[in-house]
Design a protein that fits this description.
mainly alpha, two-stranded antiparallel sheet, 14 helices, three-stranded antiparallel beta sheet
Length: 324
């Protein structure tokens, strides 16, 4: 059955439709236009290179912990002006929510997330700044467009999706490239292939195996299967992205694949608001590593690399690498 979120976290873009969805999306979309995000590229690339600097000098590093996790939370934290000291704590709570070690941990993490975001919104109301969260608060206060729950829920979604999803795409992307040395060599030799590599990583190695649950409003027949009204439906993105009727040799990782379309960032009304930002982050993260460490290698046998136990995503718990 999974767990339910409190109203202060649940009233977000993933869970609302029609007029409410369009209203919320309009308020926040200006921060994520392709043009505005492209203006952030230099800053994102600089952050990636600073994190890569910390790996210099050789040795074994857990790339998930020291590189893939800090980069997205730095980017999205700057966008919402989240204090530096709170960013990794928030990321840790989200990780616990999706991969708890015991049943009670998810609820504890959700409580901490709600308390943190409610406090952050209250602080920004007292002292607004030039950040996305302050802009959303002003929109609510001036035109009454956002309820309190919607405001906190939007902050939750932006921070959660902007950190959790991106860090796992970076980690699984690097892991996949290290498992395909010929593809890795081609990527190191030709920078023009890097945007294509990002799309193939999203198709082939995206950590989110499923879209969030949906509920049909009427009885449906799909592929000869009867789906009654109101049943829980899980849409398998991983299966769609490996559809042999769509992709030739669908289980092969190929950064030169002609068909670059996939469903990892959604489709239609619910297409990922931060898609452009995610693409730039992943490309910047890969480029900084490949440019700095041409002999980047796994520091463990593939079967020894640990994956986290999660109902939500196929994500690495750690990624030990050498950066000779």
């Amino acid at each position: 059955m999974g767990f339910s979120l409190p109203p202060a976290l649940d009233a977000n873009l993933l869970n609302v439709d029609h007029a409410d969805h369009l209203r919320l999306r309009r308020l926040v979309s200006q921060a994520f236009t392709a043009r505005r995000v492209e203006q952030m590229r230099t800053t994102i690339e600089a952050s990636a290179h600073r994190l890569a600097d910390a790996l210099d000098g050789g040795g074994i590093h857990d790339l998930a912990a020291v590189y893939a996790s800090p980069l997205p939370i730095t980017v999205i934290g700057d966008l919402l002006a989240v204090p530096d000291t709170d960013r990794l704590a928030f990321s840790s709570w989200v990780g616990t929510m999706f991969a708890p070690e015991h049943p009670g941990q998810a609820g504890e993490a959700i409580k901490k997330i709600q308390e943190f975001l409610t406090g952050l919104v209250a602080e920004r109301q007292r002292a607004p700044g030039d950040d996305l969260l302050s802009g959303l608060i002003a929109a609510r206060d001036e035109d009454d467009k956002l309820s309190e729950d919607e405001l906190v829920s939007l902050a939750f979604l932006i921070l959660m999706a902007g950190s959790e999803n991106a860090q796992h795409v970076i980690t699984t992307g690097v892991y996949t490239l290290l498992q395909h040395p010929q593809q890795l060599a081609a990527l190191q030799a030709d920078r023009k292939l890097r945007p294509d590599a990002v799309e193939e990583i999203l198709r082939y190695a995206h950590p989110n195996q499923m879209a969030i649950r949906r509920f049909p409003l009427e009885d449906l027949d799909i592929g000869g299967v009867r789906i009654p009204r109101g049943e829980t439906v899980m849409l398998c993105l991983a299966s769609a992205n490996r559809d042999p009727d769509r992709y030739p040799d669908a289980d092969r990782f190929d950064i030169r694949r002609a068909d670059k379309a996939h469903l990892s960032l959604g489709h239609g009304l619910h297409y990922c608001l931060g898609a452009a930002l995610a693409r730039i982050e992943v490309e910047a993260a890969l480029s900084a590593l490949l440019d700095r460490f041409p002999r980047l290698r796994l520091a463990a046998a593939p079967h020894e690399v640990r994956w986290r136990h999660s109902w939500r995503s196929h994500a690495l718990r750690e990624l030990p690498v050498t950066v000779a």
